[in-house]
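Protein modeling request. Please complete all fields; requests missing the sequence field cannot be processed.
Requester role: graduate student
Desired output: 3D structure, token encoding
Chains: 1
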Amino acid sequence: MNWISNYVRPKINSLFSRREVPENLWVKCPACGTMLFHRELEDALNVCTSCGHHMAISPRDRFRALFDGGVFLELPVPVPVADPLGFRDQKKYPDRLREARKKTGEDGAMLVAEGEIGRLKTICIGQDFAFMAGSMGMQVGNAIIAGVERAVQERCPVVLFAAAGGARMQEGILSLMQMPRSTVAVQMLKEAGLPYVVVLTDPTTGGVTASYAMLGDVQIAEPGALICFAGPRVIEQTIRETLPDGFQRAEYLLDHGMLDRVVARKEMREELARLLRLLTNSTPPVFGDLPAPEAIPALPR
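Delivered output (301 residues):
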């Protein structure tokens, strides 16, 4: 055994070799270009600390920041048929689903949770844009119905966070059928006298905007969110005119009466707590004195 080659030289190389830095430590803001440290960005709920640009956030992370103490129960969603049309483009639809599940760690594009916001029991439904652009498939319709049925059973309000690129083409007409299905579910809430609040995030487009995303008793949006049916580029090419600055953005829609409020992500929890208390004719929201996570049993996924 050569002691110098096998021990001394590797030891020296390890001392002087350059250590690789993980690629995900810094995130570049797409709006202002500022490099943000990942922990600082997480603490700010994926909002740029330099310009205030609201980046995408997963429903699970949103719920942890929204519910009291970050405690919530994930409600089960009926599993739809995996590939009802046998659809294939460049890839098979089941392969795309597997990739999306591996990327996000979620079973579908929508998550349903039950918890308390300001000590008021609430059902929250969150759409994940990272899962195939949050496209509306049968799982999304099943999730909305599951959340509404639970809300009617527990007599509590529903808050839905929309983020989608529209209908899912791999499910064809079955995807479009989720528009009337979700509309019927919202009507169930109205007949039960329960509030339905929608928070529109960037982007909310297509068939989602044409159905459950615009049926709320109160319509809230995050700053700068793109909210539309057809995008600005499609409209400009169709009418051959230049659109106004900020067209179809949250602030533009607020000025033109399509939204009730634009609320920053950091202020969303307090805003929803006050609003839900008003809509349910309850006492003012209470913060603090939160339940311990181990005190609440988990539901099966």
